[in-house]
Each structure stands twice: as structure tokens, then as C-alpha cells.
Amino acid sequence: MGFSVSSGWEDNGAFSHISNAITSLREVFTFKPSGSDFNVFSWENSDPSQIAIKLIDQLFFIDSYYETITFLKSNHHLLSIILSAYLEIQKRFEGSFSLKLELDSEEDMLYLLIISNNDSDTAYKNLDTLDQEWWIHNVNKSKGKMNIDLELE
Questions:
Q1: SS3 (DSSP) at 148
Q2: For the packed helices 14-28 and 48-59, what is the interaxial angle rounded to 10 degrees?
Q3: How do residues 27-79 score in pLDDT, each as one tens digit?
Q4: Separation between Cα atoms, residue 25 and residue 30, nearest integer Å
Q5: pTM across the whole model
Q6: Each residue's pLDDT tens digit, 86-98
Q7: 3-state secondary structure labels for all residues of 45-91
């Protein structure tokens, strides 16, 4: 799935996007009876990794879908990093952009690509800001399995 994001953090409300994605997850999961209580969503008892993957599926375009999802299931430590990255990118990138997850199976590496329509100077400045203010403090959590990069339209 995935979608394009426009404008800055204040203008489009990243939390609103995440909230909308979570709401849309209710369509994915069905009601599941739990004893006599029929108001329990099945995802409440689901593996948190599965819920995170469904949320990521709503927020990012996922290239080589099956292979990438399999990689994420094997490297579940990346799930919270990817969701945090979404919010951090929202804060720092201006204009319209989209987000893509691309797996390089030869390198055993996941790339979070920020696809920007900004001019290259602005886009690379935004990426540098993201790197210096956030990614440098979180890269070790990826255990060498993920990188963030820029792709210009």
C-alpha cells in the first residue's frame, strides 16, 4: 500500500496518518469471540510484530513484498525503528514525498527510501538533518540490517 506525504510535520499531522492507518487495520482483523465477550478484536491477542507489520504496510510502499515481509519477521527489532523513522522523517522533510522499503537480499540489508520531489540540495539537506538529529543515535539498534537513503523523483 503506502502513500505519499505532503508538506511538513505541523501541516499534515503524522500522528493523524498513523491513527488513520491503525483505524484501517480494524478492517484487516475481524471480531473474534473470547468467551462470552464478542467485543474483542482478534488483534488484541495477536503478536505485536504482526500488528506492526500491518501498520508498516499501511505507511510504506513495500518492494518485493513477500521477501521484505519475511525479512522483517526474521528481524523484528527493525519494526519499531521503521515506525519511529516514519515520524522523524515527517518532522524533517518538506514538500511531497513517499516512503519505500526495499530489500537488498545480497547484502541482507533493508533500505528505507525517502522518495522526494524536492530539489536535490533541499532533499539532501533534509536527509543530513535526519541523519545528524535522529538516525546517528538509532543506527546501532538496526544491528547492521537497515539503512535510510534518498531517492529523487
A1: strand
A2: 120
A3: 444 434 444 444 434 445 567 888 899 999 999 999 999 999 999 999 999 99
A4: 10
A5: 0.73
A6: 999 999 997 788 9
A7: HCCHHHHHHHHHHHHCEECCHHHHHHHHHHCCCHHHHHHHHHHHHHH
